[in-house]
Amino acid sequence: MTDARGNARPNGDGSVRHPPGTPCWVSLMVRGLDATEQFYGALFGWEFRPGPRPLGPYVRALLDGYPVAGIGVLSPDRRLPAAWTPYFASDDVDLTAEVVRSCGGTVGVGPLDADDAGRLALVSDPSGAVFGIWQTTLGAVGGVTGRPGTPAWNELTTFETTNVAKFYETVFGYDEEPVVSADLDYVTLRLDGRPVTGVHGLGNALPRDRGPHWTTYFTVADTDDAVDQVLHLGGQVLGGPRDTEHGRVAMVADPEGARFALVRTAE
């Protein structure tokens, strides 16, 4: 269900239905669940409830009773870094996963059922950046946006935008709006005329130890105060805070090293 601008709109039960291609969920995989809950609970005011178990122990982070994110536990035998992963809505996750494959991407996990909450797949684009596909059976997985502690934006950092943007356009039906600049390789991907995500090409400046990756931005009431809180809770500040055209932004990491961004959006 959408409003006049095509944005997700609450159903009668308070859930939200996301049009296909819309970022609809973010999930964090870590090794220490209890310590991670303490960090994000103090930073964002989240509470936690057990969630579906498609990949092992998993909790939903709630804000005022509405789910805003998920946290799962990495298998001890998998040497993967703690990382946030965005999920994009699909009406048929199996079909979307096949399109990912046909366009040069990789399906790493699934598609599989997440109990009775929906169906998901973890995939990567041709450059190696990991993201998720979510097909819900309960209206939606998230129902609160625009408030401190909720995801505000997801951005892909990669080598170049031209081919990568075309991949996402084919998979999700986006239109692209490139930035016309000799110094900046950036494309905003739009769905029904509204911006849904961005792709930033860094070329050889992309850190080789990270490779192409997605970054989730979370809304905060005050970026500087939130940065102080991150440090107090044992996290790291990787960049900023700095003022941008979209608000005051800082890049940070939690105590396990999972990177994310804080943004106080411009009034």
UniProtKB/TrEMBL annotation:
<dbReference type="Pfam" id="PF18029">
    <property type="entry name" value="Glyoxalase_6"/>
</dbReference>
<feature type="domain" description="VOC">
    <location>
        <begin position="22"/>
        <end position="136"/>
    </location>
</feature>
<dbReference type="InterPro" id="IPR037523">
    <property type="entry name" value="VOC_core"/>
</dbReference>
<dbReference type="InterPro" id="IPR029068">
    <property type="entry name" value="Glyas_Bleomycin-R_OHBP_Dase"/>
</dbReference>
<dbReference type="InterPro" id="IPR052164">
    <property type="entry name" value="Anthracycline_SecMetBiosynth"/>
</dbReference>
<protein>
    <submittedName>
        <fullName>VOC family protein</fullName>
    </submittedName>
</protein>
<dbReference type="InterPro" id="IPR041581">
    <property type="entry name" value="Glyoxalase_6"/>
</dbReference>
<feature type="domain" description="VOC">
    <location>
        <begin position="150"/>
        <end position="265"/>
    </location>
</feature>
